[in-house]
Amino acid sequence: MNWNVPTLTGRTREQVNVEHEGFFNGAHQVDLAKGLDELEASFNQKKAAVEQAFVKIIRGIEGRLEFLKKIAPEVQAEWASVRDRIGEEKPHLAVPLLIVSLGLFAIFAESVLLAPSLDMLGVADRYWQQFAAFGLCALAAVIFHLAWDTLNAQRVSKLWRITWRSIAALAIPALAAWGILRGYQVAFSSELAQNPLADFLHGHPFLASIFYVFVTLATPIAAAGALHFASTHVHDWYEYTTAKRKAYGLSQELASLGKKLQQESESRTHTLKAVEEQKNRFKATYAIHHERGQRRLAKKSPLWIVQLKALAAAVLTAIVVYPASWIYHALALLPFFVYIVVFVFFRHLREHPTPQEYFNHEVVRFADEEEEEKQ
User: Fold this and answer.
1) Which residue of 99, 205, 266, 339 pairs with 314 in a disulfide if CB–CB is 3.0 to 4.6 A?
2) For 18-41, what is each residue's pLDDT tens digit?
3) Where are the domains of the chain?
């Protein structure tokens, strides 16, 4: 049995063996209470370290639980508000994305029809006509989308509503006039090309104006509606999923942390109980071997073993330095110095054995059955 304590014989802090220390101190008449007190102090330190480690973990869990319980009403209220406004069913993304795609396609188609009419603005290149026509259609769609967005009075200021509604109100007659001009331009181009369409447009100017005004005005309005519809539904989808994830995640984390707190508390109790049982076991083992040391003692190893070790070291040194001693004669004295150093070293160990060596040399008396029967 090993444990880390300030050693019972005053050596530096290291890992010691209960049996060895108990036997050694008992043989040297060290008071039993002293060793038991040091064991008690050592395990008290160990219990304090265990307690500190668990307190740190438990306080972290309790702090997290307190924070979650504090924000739980707000999160649940937000989730309830979202469900009341949107409904229990999760919003879908497929339809809004399809509608906004159709709105973009409408703008692209209108830019193709609008491009030739930009000749009147001095844009003659075909590619620049396509680019400018798409930009104008997108600009009109954005204006109507922002004006539509002002209907939600909670999200925008009064100045913002007035500004974009005024711009949208000016954009409607401007686009209507642009549609009439497009009709005249198409009629003029058809007349130059001797196209029968020119006769029809000149014969039915009112119908032609209605058609081109409708195309010019309806396309950006439809695109703005598609954008507004998609943005609203995407926002609802995001708000619904976010609120649901927070609410369900909060509930799951609260349950998980509650179980974890209970497990850590039980683990702390079991660990402290295990340390207490280990302390009692070590103290009992120490007391038993302390009594053995008092009764049996240990015998000292023979001196001839020390002499034999020193002699072996001297002979080995002589074999190694023999060739060089013919050149440096002083090396011939090295085996004698080695003998002295090794002898002093092992003699010191013999006179001052470690607790393990002392334990290994315990005096054991073998009983004789015949003598015991005679007695």
Assistant:
1) 339
2) 777 777 677 667 788 888 888 888
3) 2-81+259-296, 303-374
